[in-house]
Design a protein that fits this description.
two-stranded antiparallel ribbon; transmembrane helix; 318 residues; single chain
């Protein structure tokens, strides 16, 4: 029976043992072949042989990790604050707020930061990127561009004082925030702001496109505002006849009504005092030929009267 155990022991501690990827020489001192040999503990012996083979240069981790077998492969498990870079464990520390540190395929350091923190590379820092506090509110994502904080706000939010603030005008308008944080809605054509959102506001005026009627909401009620020179009618913006309702033109000028406005034109024989100015604010003066015509008319009238008197006088004397 002792011979059986002895031969079994020789079989287990043979000169080579197979480790995935390589055959490693293992030297085992056999016990003396006498009658004092005891049965071998099979479980402990096989584990010791494998561990002995694993540490003999199967993978080089650079002194900051251990070589381990995972899924029939030998890999490096790096120590804390180290990460695998070009098959070796290199220093990789992203600061006390980091959730992890690694290197990408280009060897660039990458930090895994928790919420409200982001990777930031400080100028002239030998440590490189670290996780620093970076908060944009509950509706935004924060990042660092050098020393500048950047906020990427969710839809319906706008950046205000370093945080993402709610700013919604509905699907028919664009929302912006003033310097004081006041919301402003720029609604699409045919829409107006009511209760903080852009809603349809159509006056159904036939002249809407031509004259640009403006539809707004006042206390939740639709209000149609016509452009200058027009007044709200039953179905459209009606033109105001300024020539009829008032006397907008100066003396010696004719008033001509036009859609939304009017025009002043000097009467025949008159001209604007200053042609470069709007006639509505200027006056009309007589032209030189009109003055000459009047003077000639006066002279002719006097001449005719004198001749008539002369003829009548000679008739009476004869």
């Amino acid at each position: 029976m002792r011979l059986f155990y002895y031969f079994a022991y020789l079989l287990v501690v043979s000169a080579f043992v197979y480790i995935p990827g390589a055959c490693t020489d293992v030297s085992v001192n056999l016990p003396p072949s006498d009658n004092s040999i005891h049965p071998l503990n099979e479980e402990n012996t096989s584990l010791d042989l494998i561990n002995a083979a694993s540490v003999q240069g199967e993978c080089d981790c650079g002194g900051h990790g251990s070589c381990q077998e995972v899924d029939d492969m030998l890999v490096c498990k790096c120590n804390v604050k180290y990460a695998l870079k070009a098959s070796k464990c290199e220093s990789c520390d992203c600061g006390p707020w980091s959730e992890g540190c690694s290197f990408d395929s280009n060897g660039e350091k990458k930090c895994q930061c928790p919420r409200d923190y982001a990777s930031k590379t400080k100028k002239w820092s030998e440590q490189g990127a670290t996780c620093e506090y970076c908060y944009c509110g509950e509706s935004g994502r924060c990042s660092w561009d050098g020393e500048e904080k950047l906020c990427d706000c969710d839809d319906g939010y706008r950046l205000f004082n370093g945080k993402c603030k709610k700013c919604r005008c509905g699907q028919f308008g664009v929302c912006t925030l003033s310097e004081s944080g006041e919301k402003k809605c720029s609604c699409d054509d045919g829409y107006a702001e009511v209760y903080g959102e852009c809603q349809e506001c159509d006056c159904n005026f036939t002249t809407r496109r031509t004259f640009g009627v403006n539809c707004t909401f006042v206390d939740g009620l639709k209000n149609c505002i016509c452009p200058p020179g027009f007044v709200v009618g039953l179905k459209n913006c009606e033109d105001i006849n300024e020539c009829y309702t008032s006397r907008p033109c100066p003396a010696n000028a004719l008033c001509i009504n036009k859609p939304g406005t009017f025009e002043c034109k000097c009467e025949s024989g008159y001209k604007p005092i200053r042609s470069s100015l709007d006639l509505k604010l200027s006056r009309c003066e007589e032209t030189q030929w009109r003055q000459a015509t009047i003077a000639l008319g006066v002279i002719l009238s006097i001449g005719i009267i004198w001749i008539s008197c002369y003829i009548m006088k000679h008739k009476s004397s004869s």
